[in-house]
Amino acid sequence: MKKKWLSMLLALTLVPALIAGCGNSANGGNDVSNSAEKSKDADKPVEIRIMAYNAESSRATYLKMLDEKLPNIKIVFEFVALDNFNNVLNSQLQAGQGPDIIEVGGETRLLANAGFLMDLTNESFTSKYADAGLAPYSVNGKVYATPLQSWYEGIFYNKKIFKEQGIEVPKSFDQFIQIHKDLAAKGIKPQIMGAQSWEPMMKQSIGLVNNDFYSNPDNKDFDEKFNNGEAKLSEAWLPYVENWSRMITEGILTPDMLGLSYDQALDEFATGKAAMWESGPWAVGTIMEKSPDFELGMFPIPGSEEGPGWLVGGPGSAFAVNAKTQHKAEVLQILDLTATPEAQQALIKDNAGSSFLKGVEVDLGEIYADCEEAFKAGNVYAPWTAAWVSGNPVVEGYGKSLQEVVAGVKTIKQALEDADQVNQVMRDSLK
């Protein structure tokens, strides 16, 4: 584990000078044919490459708008699955062949500290966003990315099954557990999870931590202390994650789910084979395509005490600019257009969320009616994107260890200790 994350960090922190000379080709001569060729090239749209870990389908309306509004630019959209995104991106950046625009999340601070991202602090469009949307992408007072729509995850549920079984949306974690038991007793699969990915368990467990730990004002400084190595997850979070682990010990999340992919779990839920599934708005289109009459709802992850619950999320991904882009003017055109109400609504159309652009309001619709109280209370948080310097490596280490907990080879305490170790390795490597 230690060698793996050291390797990743070294890849990120290679001296930027190694790539400074790449892409600087020289064309000799000023003859007529050369001038004519330049004139011909000037009429062609400039290609701007966007590398993203959200699929093109989740940006379709937005990309179409860019195509219509910016005829001088041709967008080349490159989707790379999240599991391999950092490896592909790091390799390209080191080789001086990185994309012009990078979709970023929890790795923003690492990339910025390594000198790979352009400082956007003083660009006119940056000030159009609320501070809450810019904070996760800022380092030492400088902004290195501008937010797309917010993201959030909760528990999708089949309203028809709930109605038929006389089940109410849970307001506490005990009620949540009991719903699983009641459905299972009637031969209905309560919850499906594509645990082949480490993300769902990681997020669901942090949902309970949000409710029971981050909601306490006494813990408001925890993330800063964690970044500084002054606090540990294995100490502060342990009782809350152990409470969540009843999902495992009581047979709700089972080892066979480790063999299920995201798509397989989605299909089981969408075709009525399970009553609940954790995910976010990006999955709605696929669910409704598979089952047009599906009665879909979402509720927040409930806490130990009855209340509005919490969603896992916050500022979602953002667009950063490769510091070495050869097309700065065109890239800034794109980000300037993105900072308009029209572009924000286009983004939200294919991937529902709220906007951090000042003055833009979004009606999320009936599917999320059960989340309204949580939204109003501001109960949406993901510490690894909102606050942690080494967010993505830490939660990946934690999530993969939770898979081992389900497999029966690790304890919750060991999973949290693994996350602490990753955080310490990353901190030591940044010194």
UniProtKB/TrEMBL annotation:
Signal peptide segment: 1-20
UniProt keyword list: Signal
Domain of life: Bacteria
PROSITE patterns: PROKAR_LIPOPROTEIN
Pfam family, one: SBP_bac_1
Name this polypeptide is given: Multiple sugar-binding protein
Lineage of the species this protein comes from: Bacteria, Bacillati, Bacillota, Bacilli, Bacillales
Gene name in the database record: msmE
